[in-house]
Design a protein that fits this description.
Helix content is about 35%, strand content about 20%. An eight-stranded parallel β-sheet has the order 13-12-11-10-9-8-7-14. Strands 2-3-1-4 form a four-stranded antiparallel β-sheet, with helices on one face. A two-stranded antiparallel ribbon has the order 5-6. The chain is elongated and about 65 Å long. It has about 350 residues and is an alpha/beta fold. Helix 2 packs parallel to helix 3 and helix 2 packs parallel to helix 10. The chain has two domains: about 60 residues, Alpha-Beta Plaits; about 250 residues, TIM Barrel.
Amino acid sequence: MVIIMNPDATQQNINDVIEVIKDVGLEARVTEGVQQKIVAVIGDKSKLMPVPIDAMTGVDHCVAISKSYKLASRESHPQSSVINVSGVEIGGSEPIIMAGPCAVESREQLLESAEIIKSGGAQFLRGGAYKPRTSPYSFQGLEEEGLKYLAEAREKTGLKIVTEVTTVEAIEKVAYYADMLQIGARNMQNFGLLKEVGKCGKPVLLKRGLAATLDEWLNAAEYIMSEGNPNVVFCERGIRTYETYTRNTLDMSAIAAIKHLSHLPIIVDPSHGTGKWRMVKPMALAAIAAGADGLMMEVHPNPAKALSDGSQSLTPEHYRDVMTSINKLAKFIKAENLLSFVED
């Protein structure tokens, strides 16, 4: 349930509503609408049945929400959210680009990558310090050493850092070094990890699971948000289907669906979505055209020597070419306002 307050409702009116909600053992979360404040009720709304909320001073009306992902739902937060990550806004008027190598392999490799990423115009450097791999014999990452290299790259370039956290035990360490924590596809329904990430206070990039439905994905975001962290960004990275030519099947329809169902931003990862560097550019452009709030792409100084995912990584030259095309398309879309229908 959400309680829509009158535009002229006072803070005391809102506090009175929150107190009533808490008195029956439920939680209340206040969000700012365009003209009104909205109080979301978390828990069994039947407990409020005997309470005449509609009659309280400052209340306009109540709306029942049937979806289980109440905090992530657009019903509880009609206005699109803009997530601020250390001064960079995701979900605003400009697409945000996260780029870098799949894994942090060495200090030299990462610093070279960071300079390439910066020169191309991206705002975030991505790189895995902890690498959950299908095979236990594959490169697993440099862990804290890799995190230190990422922090050094941020000092030198000003790029923000997004990197994956794979275990509850590593959250504090990763949060210390990174600007944004990534939950990878394999951990999308690691509910213990989601809860603890929700408590850490850092923005979270939530990748879609290998075979997750939109409902499962949205509820994963709800786990994070229910712990007090509203700063979640979705990342569509392809799902597993019967197709074998591509690494995954990139679900472009998820962009429009998430925009309709949720107020949270969504970006797209065409590198994991296809597994082929030649397909990254067309899929990146398609994602921006479909309304994505940004992209995550793998870029490596020398993909042929990459310790992981070299076949889907862009060379520096291909990366700059993709960025040039993305910027042209984004300017055209902004000028023509082609995507004003998305949230209707």
